Amino acid sequence: MLGPTTRCTPSGCRALRSVGRAVLFALTVLPALACSGGRWEDRVLLRPNGDLVAASGDVSIAEYVAGDVMAAGGSIDFDGTVGGSYLGGGGDQTVRGRIEGSVRGAGGTVLLDAAVGQNVTIVGGGVELTAGTVVDGNAYLAGGKVRVLGRVAGDLYVSAQEVELAGEVDGDVRLEAASVTVSSDARVGGELRYRVEEGVQARISPQATIVQGAVELEPRESGEGGLGLVVLRVLGFLLVGTTLVVLAPATIAAVVRGATPNAAAALGLGVLVLIGVPVGIVVVGATVIGIPLALVVAVLYGVSLYLAPIPTGLWLGGAVLRSRNPAERGNAVLLFLAGGALVAVAGFLPWVGWLARLGAITFGLGAVALMIRDRGRVPAGG
After folding, report:
1. Containing H/E element for 157?
2. Alpha helices in the chain (DSSP H)
3. pLDDT tens digit string along 148-207?
4. In angstroms, how far is CA 112 from the centroid of its own chain?
5. Which of 282-299 are b and which e, b meaning 16 or more Cβ less than 10 Å from the residue's Cβ?
6. Phi, psi at residue 205, to the nearest 5°?
7. CA atoms of 121 and 80, how far apart (whole Å)
8. In whole angstroms, what is the distance from residue 322 CA to residue 350 CA?
9. In angstroms, rounded to a whole number, what is the distance separating the alpha carbons of residues 202 and 192?
10. Interior CA angle at 241 toward 235 and 242, to 5°?
11. pTM for the full predicted model
């Protein structure tokens, strides 16, 4: 959605942060399944501090919730009033009623037919904002097919395979898709900027109202990213991390446990590992005999740099959800998704993303080094 030459506006930066939350709850199906021992009929229902947390094969909610609603399931049907925000992840979702805060959802299909007091962020195979939908803030949408039939008081950003705009947007509109359709019923209070695949003509009705005009952007060059690429990379990281946490929960928990009271030590040790290993590779590789070892270590070092943010995400999730025990597999998955989404999305923020990635890698390397050091210690008198 935000190309590499696009200046980061406040709304654009909020979009990236919101996408992270949407991705987080797109994957809440995994921790819900883990917590229920693999049996979807075992419903998880919690009501902490006015919030509502629900996970099941089929989730149906029709009530007033003072706080936030967080739901995961094969299908989700919400029809009520939420004093906070709605966050949902599952196969099919239908959200109706009134949400005072923001709506963030991800799934196979997501249909929004509600009044939303703040922003909307949705990622899905099929996404639709019905004619009855009113969004008081901005809307950030990504998916296979996206239809916008309702009203958005702020700006609209869409990255999809196919986009149809037939509603009303008071602010600016940015569309990036293989095909774009703007119907005669569409009204854009600001400027419409759109990008389609090379050789494809956008279908913009002459009867559509576009107050500040329409601007076609240059087709994206091969390899150039956008919101879709950001989403895929974040999803990939979360899936790899979730798999590692599920397969080795005790090891990951031990890494986090050792770093929790020694965060500063983990960062310091991480800096030493980050700098020291490449220096060691160069020194060892300077000898003919050491070249094979240097190559192996270099490969392992590269893999470590990719995996290092995983324990960082789990540690950050533990700081957010203090009541969870990371030694339990289900809890470890929940903690990683909570912190891992923040770590992943922070890495894509303009200007400061590189610093966030560097910090996550450094802390993760240091946390692993602390665990190895502690396990190698011989007890006194032993």
Report:
1. strand 156-165
2. 10-26, 29-35, 227-247, 249-259, 263-285, 291-307, 309-320, 329-346, 353-375
3. 999 999 999 998 888 999 999 999 999 988 889 999 999 999 999 998 877 778 899 999
4. 19
5. eebbeeeeeeeebeebbe
6. -65, 135
7. 19
8. 30
9. 12
10. 85
11. 0.54
